[in-house]
Design brief:
The complex is a heterotrimer of chains A (about 260), B (about 450) and C (about 325).
Chain A (H helix, E strand, L loop, with lengths): L1 E4 L7 H9 L2 H13 L4 E5 L7 H15 L4 E4 L3 H10 L8 E6 L2 H14 L2 E5 L10 H17 L7 E4 L5 H4 L3 H12 L7 E5 L9 H17 L4 E4 L4 H13 L13
Parallel strand pairs in A: 1-2, 1-8, 2-3, 3-4, 4-5, 5-6, 6-7, 7-8
Chain B lengths: L4 H5 L15 H9 L13 H11 L6 E3 L4 E3 L18 E6 L4 H12 L3 E3 L2 E3 L3 E5 L5 H14 L4 E5 L3 H8 L8 E5 L4 H11 L2 E5 L3 H13 L5 E4 L5 H17 L10 E3 L5 H13 L4 E4 L4 H14 L12 E5 L8 E5 L2 H14 L3 E6 L6 H6 L5 H10 L2 H4 L4 E4 L7 H8 L4 E4 L7 H8 L1
Parallel strand pairs in B: 3-6, 3-12, 6-7, 7-8, 8-9, 9-10, 11-12, 14-15, 16-17
Antiparallel strand pairs in B: 1-2, 4-5, 13-15
Chain C lengths: L15 E4 L6 E4 L18 E7 L8 H4 L9 H11 L4 E5 L12 H14 L4 E4 L4 H14 L6 E5 L4 H11 L2 E5 L4 H13 L7 E4 L9 H17 L10 E3 L1 H4 L18 H18 L4 E4 L2 H14 L1
Parallel strand pairs in C: 3-4, 3-10, 4-5, 5-6, 6-7, 7-8, 9-10
Antiparallel strand pairs in C: 1-2
Helix pairs in contact in C: 2-3, 3-4, 4-5, 7-9, 9-10
């Protein structure tokens, strides 16, 4: 399964400060360790960055790709910053991943055309102005709308990664199954099956620290069983990565060898 | 893509009337999905449902039977043999031009008739003869077809001509023997289809490229001929690999019906060794019939062996007959060895004994085709069963000294085996690896 | 219903491996799809063939192939030069068969002498193969690796039981490595992991899945190779992306089919052509399964295979 390393996020104090000071080292360190631990993409989340989004994104993309030979997941709602990131992105190790469009009209119109223009892949959240739909089928309707817009913008279906959105189990336990079901239904929306992704750590938000690991890992297994294509997560979490690799082996997506966990 | 039980169920009457012999419509649907039942069993199925289910139940690649001996082609279900056994080994066809002299043709026929060989207990041969219209003369073509049909009564025929008049003239000599009429194309389609329908024979169609081939195939099917064999015009090895892969993927992965048919491959080359190499590509990559220009014995041996290998069921090991094999000029003083009837084990051990130049008796015991260690672990190659096999065999009559050489991997059995054999038998532990046999045997001689 | 070309996309690719030194260095591998599907992938390098020579005269080779080298096979250096200059070999594979304890039991020092002689005689890349004896190979290949330093040879074969010494020698002397496991896709992966964990660059490994001759288990090798490529290209498994090597000479030329005279088995046809076709078809089968580098013996078989490869690319 594809892992998008989530650690470079403006929410983390260390990252926020490094970005503000344009200090590359903390970002590069985080990028490097995530890559070594198996991240296939590095997420770069700069937040809304109202003042200097484009410059910040341009700088962040360049300093990160200076040290890791990997494609980046560009995480911002700021359109100008997204454009700057796409321009700065080095595509030799893979195309950029736009994080994200959604079923909200403005956001869809802002982001989807960029995927076409820059030949990037794009994460699309199946929520609308009304919020996150309750049922998996309703999320499918939003997905279908997103797919329609993609076709208009010349974005192939294979470039869209649908995200059903994860609600935390301590507060919305009744909604967790729907996210799992949504993964299966999303895949069936096209042939070949649509790609999917989730912001995995959200499932354990609000749970005590000692529970977060077991909740997140087990939720991962259920999602992977339904064919989850990728997850935004922390590859430094060894138990999480071990679980992911083991599911891959059990589902014959990864060749077994006695040392498979070390890979 | 085959329908699931649930999808089929949606088209059934859902009355649970039990007329089909099953307790519920869902149970019947599951049987249909497993291709273990026919929709005929349900008297209440609408015509529409029958048609829909019938079409969905069709194999993705049509099966066609050719020749008086009923050689089957098509019906393949996978792209890789490790997924599932390839179904119908591709027959080899010798190409005979109708411009060749009568003596040459007589020799060709004799070669086909004497082409049968035995490999691991399977009788393999050149199954088909392709008569090719080079002369343009219907009478000549018909005469050669007759000569071949009469001279090789067991071989299936391929009539290779794009002149309907030539096919008309020749077909009478073999129509009842399920020939393949090859040579239909966009220009002669109507006439060729007419013959195929009248004589109820399979039709080989040619169009260059898969777009044209798909169109042609759809047209032919629409005109009422469903036993179709495809030729995309692939002649170089590259075209063969690419186009046959595209055809098989389209048929299996995309349910693309126009290309869901067997494929005929013409691999003729001036250099016979190169022709064998190209033919081997066809065998591995999805050709259903392979037409060669020559069938020297050394060449057919190689091609039939490869075909046998590639079409082996990956789940079921090939086995040889249980018996005591004489290797070289073995006599009552020659060593007696034992191993299992997994054909690979047999060939390798036998090969090494032959390399040693020491004549031996090789006792092969039936363990359902498992290798030595696997058979031992499964409890099939153990002291008791080995002792029974040896005692019930003619082993004690063949050798003066009652000594049995055991594969080194099961040396742990030697004591117990000696006890169970009794009657003065001695057990000697042989080498673990077959390639150590020459040194071992020469050392004892 | 219009026909649409059913193209597959692949997540991974096969590593490109360059070996040999100077302007005679060659590269194999690098393709990013299953074998010869150039409508959906790029094939930057055609499969190559190494000609096999030995450190001792090939008295155990069947006539059909032995006689080709009568007059040169008494001297490895002469033999190597004959392969390069007269047969146009792009790569020579020196098998140190004589070092096997059950045979001439030549020493590591003897092997060093042979390797040095052969390296002086040719400038095309050299592959150095042990005799296949696990313990002896470790010593012999260690010495040979030192003797061949600077020539970026392919050294082999490293197996589960003896890889540590051989890997160390390959690292120290800057050679590429053949990793061989016994017809098992999972063991092949594990061996590559173990080798890489020693600090050996995975890009310098070439995998030998263990060849079998036509009629003697070839389908096992064929399917193991197809499964290795699925892991490399579809699953993008970095441990399975090495090029593939098939060392077919010993297996082909010890079969009955390559040696039994026609008089003994008339239904098998002419012997010389039979031996040649046996090696050619064994090779073509390996190539179709993804082999990037073959080790072969008979020039006529090599010729047929090269013609086939030219048609395939």
């Amino acid at each position: 399964m594809i892992i998008i390393g989530e650690r470079i996020s403006v929410i983390a104090k260390k990252v926020r400060e490094a970005m503000a000071a344009r200090d590359p080292k903390p970002l590069q360190e985080l990028a490097r360790t995530q890559f070594e631990k198996g991240a296939n993409y590095i997420d770069v989340s700069i937040g809304p960055a109202e003042d200097d989004g484009p410059q910040l994104m341009d700088w962040a993309v360049k300093v990160i790709q200076e040290v890791v030979p990997a494609p980046l997941c560009l995480d911002t709602t700021n359109r100008a910053a997204m454009v700057a990131g796409l321009k700065a992105h080095n595509n030799q190790w893979g195309r950029a991943l736009i994080n994200s469009a959604s079923g909200e009209e403005e956001r869809l119109n802002n982001m989807m055309p960029l995927a076409g223009e820059f030949n990037a892949e794009i994460i699309a959240l199946t929520l609308t102005e009304k919020g996150i739909p309750a049922l998996a089928e309703e999320r499918c309707e939003v997905a279908a709308n997103i797919m329609g817009k993609a076709m208009e913008c010349g974005v192939p279906m294979e470039d869209i990664w649908l995200d059903p959105l994860i609600l935390p189990v301590p507060f919305q336990q009744d909604k967790c199954k729907e996210s799992i079901r949504a993964i299966r239904l999303f895949r069936e929306l096209n042939d070949p099956p649509m790609k999917t992704t989730v912001g995995l750590s959200n499932i354990a938000n609000g749970a005590p620290k000692e529970l977060r690991g077991i909740i997140t890992r087990t939720f991962l297994v259920l999602l992977m069983y339904e064919g989850l294509y990728s997850a935004i997560a922390d590859p430094n979490d060894k138990e999480f990565m071990d679980t992911m690799k083991t599911v891959d082996v059990l589902m014959e997506k990864r060749l077994y060898a006695h040392s498979y966990l070390e890979m | 893509m085959a329908l699931s039980g649930v999808e089929i169920f949606k088209h059934l009457p859902k009355t649970n009337c039990k007329k089909c012999g099953y307790p519920t419509c869902l149970a019947f649907a599951m049987k249909l999905a497993a291709l273990q039942e026919s929709t005929d069993k349900c008297p209440d199925l609408s015509e529409e449902a029958k048609k829909f289910l019938g079409a969905a139940a069709e194999p993705p690649i049509k099966g066609i039977t050719l020749g008086p001996k009923g050689v089957k082609v098509g019906e393949e279900t996978v792209l890789f043999r490790h997924e599932k056994k390839f179904v119908n080994p591709c027959p080899i066809a010798l190409n005979i031009k109708d411009t060749e002299g009568a003596d040459a043709i007589t020799k060709h026929i004799a070669d086909v008739n004497s082409s049968e060989i035995d490999r691991v207990g399977q009788m393999l041969r050149v199954d088909l003869i392709c008569v090719t219209d080079e002369s343009g003369d219907p009478a000549r073509f018909a005469a050669v077809v007759k000569q071949v049909a009469d001279g090789a009564p067991n071989a299936g025929l391929i009539l290779n001509s794009s002149r309907p008049a030539s096919i008309e003239a020749a077909i009478g000599h073999c129509a009842d023997k399920k020939p393949l009429v090859y040579g239909a194309n966009a220009e002669n389609l109507d006439a060729m289809v007419k013959i195929a329908k009248e004589k109820k024979v399979a039709l080989g169609i040619y169009a260059k490229g898969l777009d044209a081939l798909s169109d042609l195939s759809e047209k032919v099917k629409g005109m009422g001929v469903t036993d179709i064999v495809l030729d995309s015009g692939a002649r170089t090895a590259k075209e063969m690999v690419e186009e046959y892969t595209m055809i098989r993927r389209a048929a299996l992965k995309k349910s693309f019906k126009p290309l869901g048919f067997p494929v005929i491959s013409f691999v003729g080359r001036d250099d016979s060794t190169l022709e064998a190499a190209v033919a081997s590509i066809g065998i591995m990559k999805y050709a259903s019939i392979i037409v060669v220009n020559s069938i020297e014995k050394w060449k057919t041996l190689a091609l039939l062996t490869l075909r046998q290998n590639i079409y082996t069921d990956p789940q079921v090991p090939m086995q040889v007959e249980q018996k005591i094999y004489k290797i070289g000029d073995a006599n009552e003083n020659s060593p007696l060895l034992i191993t299992t009837n997994f054909s690979l084990t047999y060939f390798i051990v036998r090969g090494e004994i032959e390399n040693s130049k020491v004549p031996c008796w090789l006792a092969i015991m039936n363990v359902e085709g498992l290798s030595v260690l696997t058979a031992w672990a499964a409890g099939k190659f153990v002291a008791g069963s080995i002792a029974n096999f040896i005692k019930e065999s003619e082993a004690s009559k063949l050798v003066a000294k009652k000594e049995l050489i055991l594969p080194g991997y099961v040396s742990v059995l030697s004591g117990s085996l000696e006890d169970k054999l009794g009657e003065g038998w001695k057990v000697v532990v042989g080498p673990r690896e077959a390639n150590q046999l020459p040194a071992f045997l020469k050392g004892r001689a | 219903m219009p026909f649409v070309i059913p193209k597959d996309t692949y997540a991974g690719k096969v590593n490109a491996l360059t070996f040999g030194s100077g302007d005679k260095a060659v590269t194999v591998g690098g393709e990013n799809g299953l074998p010869f599907l150039s409508f959906e992938s790029i094939i930057p390098n055609r499969p190559l063939i190494a000609l096999e020579i030995q450190d001792v005269a090939p008295s155990d080779w069947p006539d059909t192939v032995r006689k080709v080298y009568d007059g040169v096979s008494d001297s490895p250096a002469k033999w190597a030069r004959f392969c390069q200059d007269s047969l146009g070999a792009k790569i020579v594979a020196l098998r140190l068969a004589g070092t096997h304890p059950d045979r001439e039991n030549r020493s590591a020092e003897d092997a060093v002498k042979t390797v040095t002689e052969v390296l002086s005689a040719i400038d095309v890349p050299l592959m150095i193969l042990g005799s296949g004896h696990i313990e002896k190979d470790a010593q012999v290949l260690k010495a040979a690796a030192e003797a061949a330093k600077g020539r970026e040879c392919i050294l082999g074969k490293a197996q589960e039981e003896n890889y540590k010494t051989i890997v160390t020698a390959a690292i120290a002397n800057n050679h590429k490595l053949i990793a061989m496991s016994q017809l098992d896709v999972n063991l092949a992966k594990q061996l590559n992991i173990l080798i890489t964990q020693m600090g050996f660059n995975k890009d310098n490994i070439i995998m030998d899945p263990m060849s079998s001759a036509l009629g003697y288990g070839i389908e096992y090798t064929y399917s193991v190779m197809e499964r290795i490529r699925q892991a490399a290209l579809v699953q993008n498994d970095p441990m399975m992306q090495t090029p593939l090597l098939c060392d077919i000479g010993p297996n082909v030329w010890k079969t009955k089919e390559s040696a039994a005279p026609e008089s003994e088995l008339p239904e098998w046809g002419s012997l010389d052509e039979r031996g040649i076709v046996w090696e050619s078809v064994t090779a073509s089968t390996m190539i179709m399964a993804g082999c990037n580098l073959l080790v072969m013996r008979h020039p006529k078989a090599i010729e047929a295979v090269n013609k086939l490869v030219s048609e395939l690319i």
